[in-house]
Amino acid sequence: MAAIKRHAVIIIVSKWVLFFAALLPLGFILEDVLNGGIGPDPGQAITERLGLAAFQLLLLTLAITPLRQVTGWSGWLRFRRMLGLFAFFYAGLHILAFLQLLLGWSDLWTSFTRRPYIIAGATAFVLMVPLAATSTRATMRRVGRAWKPLHRLIYPAAVLVWVHFLWQARSDITEMVIYGAILSLLLLLRIYWFGLATLIPLSRRSR
Ligand code: HEM
Question: How far, rounded to the nearest angstrom, does the alpha carbon of residue 20 sit from its chain's CA centroid?
Fold first, then answer.
């Protein structure tokens, strides 16, 4: 009984630590804005840093299952929803920054379709919306058996974000190649453990 209680306390404390850790990128951006250390083009820098935070959190969300497989501790799964929601939160801020600080709010259709890399990012965000919308326990229950197949939308979303990231690069693509290698490793591990079909959104494979 005492061991179960201790385990519950550890999970709750870890969740709070993760919550504040996930807010750090936003905190650092605000600090740089207030200190004038954000650089010569604040709008561009803020948009880029929010986008990068969103992608990093998306990759961390995808890393949860491999962590469980490697460590044998299923407690990792308790952090996945929060990581996924923070990825969505930062992606939302990234798009708001793009509109507010770079392009303005007029003619949104043109803004979102003006460049192929923006279309890739916008499509990724659209795929993330149903994941965030069905993340509570109540909606999980309501969606039932369709929940897992639906949440496989995270794989095409992550690939599209990477395409978006690569496509917007101007010259040096080292960073994009590193992130691409991490994403490929996470997807390949999943294929190795559970099969290719479990990467296909809306397919009814059990894993
Ligand atoms: C409507 C959707 C989106 C729009 C309009 C958009 C817009 C942009 C813009 C304007 C940039 C900067 C490009 C440049 O430097 O010239 C950018 C970069 C980026 N975006 Fe997005 N984006 C969208 C969706 C997303 C999503 C959903 C994610 C992640 C979940 C994301 C992650 C990134 C990343 C990682 C970068 C590169 C940041 C860097 O250079 O460090 N974007 N995006």
Answer: 16
In the chain, alpha helices (H): 2-35, 42-71, 80-97, 108-113, 116-133, 137-143, 147-151, 154-167, 174-194
For ligand 1, is residue 88 a contact (CB within 6 Å)?
A: no
95 C-alpha vs ligand 1 centroid, how far in Å? 8
pLDDT at 203: 73
Sorted by where each begins, the domain ranges of the chain are 2-199
**Is ligand 1 within 6 A of the CB of residue 47?**
yes
Kindly tell me the burial class for residue 178, based on how many C-beta atoms sit within 10 Å of its own C-beta (0-12, 13-18, 19 or more): exposed
Decide: 69 and 193 in contact? Cβ < 8 Å: yes
CB distance 153 to ligand 1 below 6 Å: no
CB-based contact 151:51 (threshold 8 Å): no
- Mean pLDDT by runs of 10 across the 207 residues of the chain is 83 96 98 95 97 98 97 94 98 98 93 94 98 94 92 97 96 96 98 94 71
The length of the chain is 207
